[in-house]
UniProtKB/TrEMBL annotation, chains A, B:
Residues 10-64 form the HTH lacI-type domain. Keywords: DNA-binding, Transcription, Transcription regulation. GO terms for molecular function: DNA-binding transcription factor activity; transcription cis-regulatory region binding. This is LacI family transcriptional regulator. CDD domains: HTH_LacI. PANTHER family: HTH-TYPE TRANSCRIPTIONAL REGULATOR GALS, LACI-RELATED TRANSCRIPTIONAL REPRESSOR. SMART domains: HTH_LACI (SM00354). InterPro entries: HTH_LacI (IPR000843), LacI/GalR-like_sensor (IPR046335), Lambda_DNA-bd_dom_sf (IPR010982), Peripla_BP_I (IPR028082).
Length: 346, 346
């Protein structure tokens, strides 16, 4: 054991005295940095470290009867986890700190998403609330959580009752509409669409935005195709789609993997993405960045912040729910929609 | 508030009485399922839910003076987070539950990895220990954590003092050696190597395995090239490398992104990956799966389990450290090393 540790446990008053500030200032310096001047915080934290002061989060939790934590399930079953799962968890982790709590991930090899993992977290009292992802029609979690009186907020609509105000989602239709506006303004002629097979709620909305976009902008509607989220199938669907298009046209896609299929199919027939054919993806995933594909990036920081606002309201027992939020993605323009690539620049 | 909630807070004794078991059995059913028969556990958990019993984790924590949690930093700064960061966090989350604790991720937009985030987690007493990732020569974290007496274990060698037993890592040299053995056995003739620029500890070890492999197996050593972890640069380096190779040869790569560069460069000259040129990557990332590239998958579950064994020893105050572990990756064979692809199979 290091010799510098004091024999008696250091208290918050020891720190306050040594730093020449109030007990509340010490507490704020540790837990609510935004309430303290930076130089004061720095002085207090130096004393905290010198005296080896460790506030007892357990005692604090017991006082408030709160775990101070929000649970979220990681998908341990999918072969290919969602490309945005990690950036979203990172956004949640940063938001949590601003809302004086922390995230506790959990996972199960059994099934995803099912209730047992949520029940275990509640029984062990590790969290006060949950953030849901991968919502879908027939999802049992919202009803179970409401029945049990456990606060939650959802990334993705609550499909069985979208009037519930407990969610934030990306506006898929607005996104693909923006993509059409962008390729129209860039000078592409006819705009086709590669989506997922009809019937997926997310995919259908993204298709709707494309259909609306070609009506509103000065471009012709090209052919439509669909494929599941797999590169070989996207590639096959893209080959058929490109047969109905010509150099100077564009394809708006419902995902980055579908856009990669169009990208590879274009290269296979000697068309340069961007110069010969416009291609847009959706999600802002590493796949799009790796292959320089223009994409619609989800506003994950804003979504995380809105979900914590929803949770704060529920935890405070506020009777008026916060409004659900439909947030517009950002268009990240890359080589795949540059019709006249400049030579000689890196 | 739901009417079914009892007015008095339900205690563990209420549950034990209603389920006809001992208090310890109730505690085990919730916290240590492996110690209880499945039918007993199921009976106890039914009573737990019926009586709305919530064990107080805060009281338990205060008794043990432990947070029961392990912190790990998420990289909120990198444009392209590591492909295996999410699968590794999922593996840690599953291991944590087996070791009666949970993970608490933290992140900072300021810098990665620096000490301030770790100091904040310790000051707020949210965790008892840390799991480090992205270790590198000159990493300040191991020395600071040891000085402060905080248990930790590292995914990746502690480069400044690898004799420390606080780490588990993948055996990169053994991996690329396996890749050479595999392409040699598959019938490829000459085996080249595409690595990262010399000087990165991880990359140098992966190159060493290739060099050793071509000595031990019945193949000729082909040319070597290098590129940073970026697709355009990997593509350029791969074009040069392929100029020195012929149909029937193979390239072992230090990463999946580098392997994708070889894959794209091969397609550009009309060579079919697998049938005309063998290609292996490293890391088992989504990029490799997406493009059907043979890869070396890191044994993340075993690494997570070893790290928790290290932490358990430190938390128990055991004087003998657990041995560091160098774990061999798994070769996942895919189309890119199938020299005679079978026709007509899916």
């Amino acid at each position: 054991m290091p010799k510098t540790h004091p024999a008696r446990r250091t208290t918050i008053m020891d720190v306050a005295r040594a730093a020449g500030v109030s007990r509340q200032t010490v507490s704020n310096a540790i837990n609510s940095p935004e309430r303290v001047r930076p130089d004061t915080r720095s002085k207090v934290l130096q004393v905290v470290d010198k005296l080896h002061y460790r506030p007892s989060s357990a005692a604090r939790t017991l006082r408030h009867q709160r775990a101070g934590a929000v649970g979220t399930e990681l998908n341990a079953v999918a072969d290919q986890p969602s490309d945005i799962a990690l950036p979203f968890l990172t956004a949640l982790t940063l938001s949590a700190a601003r809302h004086a709590c922390h995230m506790v991930p959990f996972a199960s090899k059994e099934a995803f998403p099912l209730l047992s993992g949520y029940q275990d977290m509640v029984r062990r009292r590790l969290v006060d609330a949950f953030i849901l992802t991968d919502t879908h029609p027939g999802d049992p979690r919202p009803a179970w959580l409401e029945e049990a009186g456990i606060p939650y907020a959802s990334f993705g609509r609550i499909y069985d009752d979208p009037t519930r105000g407990y969610w934030a989602d990306v506006d898929g239709a607005a996104g693909t509409q923006m993509a059409v506006a962008h390729v129209a303004a860039s000078g592409y002629q006819t705009v086709g669409f590669l989506g997922w097979p009809a019937g997926s709620a997310v995919g259908d909305l993204r298709r709707e935005g494309w259909a609306q976009g070609v009506k509103e902008h000065d471009v012709a509607a090209g052919p439509e195709g669909s494929a599941p989220q797999s590169l070989p199938e996207a590639l096959r669907a893209a080959e058929d789609l490109l047969d109905g298009l010509a150099v100077g046209d564009a394809v708006v896609c419902a995902s980055d993997v579908l856009a990669l299929g169009v990208h590879q199919a274009a290269l296979a027939r000697g068309w340069t993405p961007g110069a010969d054919i416009g291609i847009t993806g959706f999600d802002g995933s590493p796949v799009a960045h790796l292959h320089s594909i223009t994409t619609l990036t989800q506003p994950l920081d804003d979504i995380a912040e809105h979900l914590f606002t929803i949770l704060d309201h529920q935890l405070a027992g506020s009777p008026e729910p916060v409004q659900a939020a439909l947030l517009v993605p950002t268009l990240d323009v890359n080589t795949s929609t540059k019709i006249t690539p400049k030579k000689g620049t890196s």
